[in-house]
Design a protein that fits this description.
single chain, alpha/beta, TIM Barrel, 8-stranded parallel beta barrel, about 40% helix, binds ligand G3I
């Protein structure tokens, strides 16, 4: 169980920021009013991932995106697992519908993701040679990026290439691509995406680089090393996505994140917050206190990034507590629902929304 003192540290800094009037609209505990996406004065776009089932069936869910977002990302509609149920099939309905919604609402859509170890359909286990892997990767990227050429402006080309930390270091995560093509699978993926849409911004996307601790530091270092190696090989890499699935039980490594982001900036790369949510599994206390802790952790994370660079976008992984991946692996011992996202399960803005809204409107 997280110590109350530790957890409140994040919240305390947030509350301190409130006292200084830095984060307006939170002092009363009520979140700031929603800023309509259409009429937003927002300088940095805010977006969220879209789960297909509520998107199709619940008007309130769609209205939340229309009210708060300038960007949308299909949560799993561009995974191989959804797009490619069989080797010869492409199922674009999910991505097409979300893109049509984005167009209708003057939003942009982010492509997530072209190459990942996860959510792969069973048939890909039959890929048994480098030549076959190259053929399938080429076909996939050419077809998918080509379909959305000029319409999806930002692609999270490779997702989570860094492995878990072992003996203090983190190498490349095993995948069918690494197994068959070696580390150059990353080069291939980015070059193919760039050829398919030369105007698209191409990102590498990673998690667990936010908090204090040796493993987080090792993952930041591994990601920086990988990024430098890719740039040194002339790979068309344009930015880094920081997922931001914040483990609430740990403090944000303010200095670690700021210097990490400064390094990314010094390499000429953009920074995107792509999947922000706060895993509140260990947070105790009344809802108002838990929500302040969640907002506090997010405030510390975004504040550390902004100390070094303005992110190109701030995205959360879902928009409402009603639909979040967090309980899949992080159910609370007390049986209460997780509260990781900016809107509660009745689409009411929470303190986390005020923090995001504050940073999106923060003047350069
Ligand atoms: O419900 C549909 C079903 O109708 C459909 O026939 C089937 C076809 O594949 O998909 C089902 O949806 C599943 C979906 O979860 C339900 O919400 C998808 O199979 C499944 O892939 C999906 O899992 C996603 C998971 O990544 C895959 O590992 C989660 O939505 C998604 O939130 C999660 O997101 C990841 C990011 O991509 C990377 N960062 C971590 C993040 C959280 O794990």
């Amino acid at each position: 169980m997280i110590s109350r003192r530790n957890a409140l540290l994040g919240g305390a800094r947030l509350i301190g920021a409130l006292a200084g009037g830095i984060v307006p609209g939170l002092g009363a505990g009520a979140a700031s009013a929603a800023t309509s996406a259409a009429g937003t004065t927002r300088r940095i776009p805010y977006g969220a991932c879209v789960n297909f089932t509520p998107f199709l069936n619940e008007a309130e869910y769609r209205i939340a995106f229309e009210t708060y977002c300038q960007q949308v990302t299909p949560e799993y509609g561009l995974f191989w697992g959804y797009l490619r149920p069989t080797r010869n099939q492409f199922v674009f309905d999910y991505a097409d519908k979300v893109l049509a919604f984005a167009d209708l609402n003057e939003m942009t859509m982010r492509g997530h993701t072209l190459v990942w170890y996860g959510a792969m359909p069973d048939w890909t286990k039959q890929i048994g040679s480098a030549a076959e892997a190259e053929r399938e990767l080429t076909l996939h990227i050419e077809k998918v990026v080509g379909r959305y050429r000029g319409r999806i402006k930002t692609w999270q080309v490779v997702n989570e290439p860094i492995d878990d930390v072992k003996d203090g270091a983190a190498g490349l995560r095993p995948s069918i691509w690494l197994q068959q093509l070696g580390p150059k699978y990353l080069d291939m993926a980015f070059r193919l995406a760039h050829q398919a849409d030369p105007a698209a911004e191409l990102l590498i996307n990673e998690y667990d680089v936010e908090c204090v601790g040796a493993s987080y530091a090792a993952r930041r270092q591994a990601l920086l090393t990988l990024v430098r190696e890719l740039l040194a090989r002339g790979v068309p890499l344009h930015g880094v996505g920081l997922q931001g699935h914040i483990q609430g039980k740990y403090e944000i490594d303010d200095d670690g994140v700021s210097s990490f982001v400064s390094e990314i900036k010094s390499l000429g790369l953009s920074v995107h917050v792509t999947e922000l949510d706060v895993i509140d599994k260990e947070f105790a206390g009344p809802i108002t206190v838990r929500d302040a802790m969640v907002a506090g952790r997010a405030y510390d994370f975004l504040n550390a990034i902004f100390a070094a660079e303005r992110p190109s976008a701030i995205g959360t992984w879902g928009i409402t507590d009603r639909y979040t991946w967090v309980p899949t692996w992080n159910k609370r011992a007390d049986g209460l629902a997780n509260r990781p996202l900016p809107l509660d399960d009745h689409y009411r803005p929470k303190p986390l929304w005020s923090v995001i809204d504050y940073f999106c409107q923060k003047a350069p």
